[in-house]
Design brief:
single chain, 2 domains, binds FE2/S2 (inorganic) cluster, Elongation Factor Tu (Ef-tu), domain 3, about 270 residues, binds flavin-adenine dinucleotide, globular, about 20% helix, 5 helices, seven-stranded antiparallel β-sheet, alpha/beta, Rossmann fold, 16 strands
């Protein structure tokens, strides 16, 4: 883990609220893995004071790295306005990643909204290794589904919108409803060795973990709650543990990826 300054090389607009920041000078992230994250702070004085946490979308060989951001509040809206060449303070790589793709497993990736970032990177790694994965990708409406062209290039995908606004094609099956409704039939047809990796809103991850439990499939969840320091110093990211000697784990240093059975998903 290292603190360094990266320069914005690109700010790729995906929708009214979502964008990909392309950063250069991120050599310190070169050994990071999907599921790990960075704390990011712009040159914006004292307000907001705290850095913001973002999963690493991918690293590139030339010291570049990307993050996928959804503008929600003050910090992310300031990042949305970031100009090419701007300097950002980065701390990372942080946290524990998802397990690397493995030929002996069938990874079922379940993403909601911008939670797709670490899972898309995992799918890219899997493809490079010749390992098959499938992504179930859901959002309320089609405007919240991002990077579909990049996803389609690396893995098979089923897309769900709660309002049915995305119309599917043969190559890109689309469902009206929650992402768990698309996942359920797949869990009734288990071939053994399935592992669920999920990242997105907490209610979605709770439902995914519950489905996995009901079908005897292990789930790993990546929790993306609020973080102030990212390094285990502020104790602000405590997650209750189930049946363990200590009552809490800390999402930033024990996670953000956890066995769903170990924690109470916030
Ligand atoms: C591991 C991880 C990965 C993430 N990955 C992504 C991603 O890839 N893309 C994405 O768009 N979003 C991601 N998020 C969510 C992202 O961090 C938030 O959307 C972002 O912090 C919101 O910042 P804001 O200033 O826009 O919102 P605001 O609502 O203004 O601020 C939210 C922020 O308030 C601060 N805060 C408030 N209360 C507390 C408290 N009690 N303790 C600590 N901090 C507090 C934190 O800095 C928090 O992040 C991730 C979060 C985590 C933890
Ligand atoms: S964010 Fe400070 S301890 Fe986890």
């Amino acid at each position: 883990m290292k603190e360094f300054v990266a320069n914005v090389f690109g700010n790729r607009v995906l929708s009214e609220t979502s964008f990909v920041l392309e950063l250069e000078g991120c050599e310190a992230l070169s050994s990071s893995e999907p599921g790990q994250f960075v704390m990011v702070r712009g040159d914006w004085g004292r307000d907001p004071l705290l850095p913001r946490a973002f999963s690493i979308l991918r690293t590139k060989p030339n010291g570049r790295a990307e993050i996928l951001v959804k503008a929600m509040g003050k910090g992310t809206r300031l990042l949305q306005l970031t100009k090419i060449g701007a300097a950002l303070k980065i701390l990372g790589p942080l946290g524990r990643p998802f397990p690397a793709p493995d030929r002996t497993r069938m990874d079922l990736l379940v993403a909601g909204g911008v939670g797709v970032a670490p899972l898309l990177w995992h799918a890219e790694r899997a493809r490079a290794m010749g390992v098959e994965v499938h992504l179930f990708y859901g959002a309320r409406t089609k405007a919240d589904l991002v990077l579909l062209d990049e996803i389609e290039r690396v893995c098979s995908v089923s897309v769900s919108t709660e309002d049915g606004s995305l119309v599917g094609t043969q190559a890109l099956p689309a469902f009206k409803g929650r992402v768990t409704e698309a996942l359920t039939p797949r869990l009734k047809d288990l071939r053994g060795q399935e592992l669920i990796l999920t990242c997105g809103p907490n209610p979605m991850m709770r439902a995914v973990a519950e489905l996995g439990r009901a079908h005897g499939v292990r789930s790993l969840v990546s929790v993306e709650g609020e973080m102030a320091c990212g390094i285990g110093a502020c104790l602000g990211c405590a997650i209750p543990l189930v049946n363990e000697a200590r009552p809490f784990a800390y999402a930033c240093c024990d996670g953000p990826v956890f066995e769903s059975e170990r924690i109470v998903i916030p």
